[in-house]
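sorry for the late reply, my laptop died twice this morning and i had to redo everyting from scratch. anyway the thing you sent over, i finally got around to it. pasting the sequence first so we're on the same page, its 459 residues, then the predicted structure underneath. double check i copied it right bc i was rushing
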Amino acid sequence: MSKEKNFGYLGNTFQIQLLNNIVLYKDFASSIVDVIEPKYFDNQYFKLIMQVLKEYYQKYEHTPSYNTLEQLIKSEVSSPMAQKIVLDMMEQVKEAPAEGESFVQEKALKFCKQQELQKVMSKAQKIIDKGDFESYDHLEEMVREALQVGEVDAGTAEVFANLEEVLEEDFRHPIPMGIPGIDNLLKGGIAKGELGVILAPTGVGKSTLLTKISNHAFNLGYNVLQIFFEDNPKIIQRKHFTLWTEIAPDLLSMHKDKVLSKVQEIRENASNKLVLKKLPSDTLTMNQIKNQIRKMIAEGTKVDMVVLDYIDCVVPDKNLGDEWKSEGSVMRGFEAMCHELNLVGWTATQGNRSSISSDVVTTDQMGGSIKKAQVGHVIISVAKSLQQKEMNLATIAITKSRIGKDGIVFENCKFDNEMLEIDTEQSVTFLGLEEQKEEKNKERIRELLEKRKQKENKS
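ok and here's the structure:
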């Protein structure tokens, strides 16, 4: 068993990363905060930061944000010089390298477990020396508890726990999509820790739907991170401007003053953020994406929703030797991140070849591994025939839902890619669709006749 008394043998960077992990990762914090001691750090300022973290956690059952932690330290340290040193140290903790988080957490938990075992062994020796046979059962229990350090089952709770919270009318606190018909069926939308998946063949409007979801959440006051791999950032910006101004993307430049006025008004009134981030496709892992979100959190932006456009562009953290297993692991990594960082997750995935011509896209038409479908809490599919594309319509289905009803199909819903208008409560019958198409054809003929007439008059 290691004879080390503190983390000093692991170096300064390790201790900085460890404090950062305790602040940012709630599951890790809950597993270590009761057994980690300030004295395990070899620097008096690290010890002070750990002491403040531990006392705050014991009082509120969660770790403070960096802003709160800084305020607590200022109140604890009266000397201006000492305060400056600690706050400078805090900046190092906030900017700690993201790489190697698994090693840091595993090593820290192992060290704390060894310290607990050493305490038990010391007590055990005293019991043995005294011949106190009555305490042997107690000794066995102490050893068992020491071995269980860091073993926290976040999914286990007594049936009588948190009664007031469980019985709240809105116990999930979901974030709506902004599509009333679907939001009602999802009991208000997707909640933090849950994952929604859009399933559609190429060219149908996955980015349109994900942008609408992002925009609506921002409008409700949430911090949203919209990640995309294939679109130009300016195109995504223009989509948001269209949603705010109801001016088509191609016409925004013609109404520049109106657009700037509206966007400026929204920016001035919003205390939350909508962050657009373009990342390289087929090179980033979910762990790397998580590290970027951690950095945002460390800088003071608590992300409420992550919209990932789309999951098929993310590579697995490890090569599992099987493409389908790898795809499943990426989706599971996304779900785990949503739970760990307490945020809503939305993503999209491509339908397979058969989905292109389907009237309704079903879960078994998901491209690649079906494991992606097993992970999602909600799967919403979108299908469009050529006729529907022409008429700005789509067939939307809730193919899976752990929240409410599934197997619900909305035929011929309004789905306007250009104006980002999606409405499942406005649907058209197939007879009405034919009437609309016929009227559109008549209008085209009238336009052609008018152009011909103008040409004849000029000649």
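Residues 101-130 form the longest helix (30 residues).
thats about all i looked at so far, will dig more tmrw
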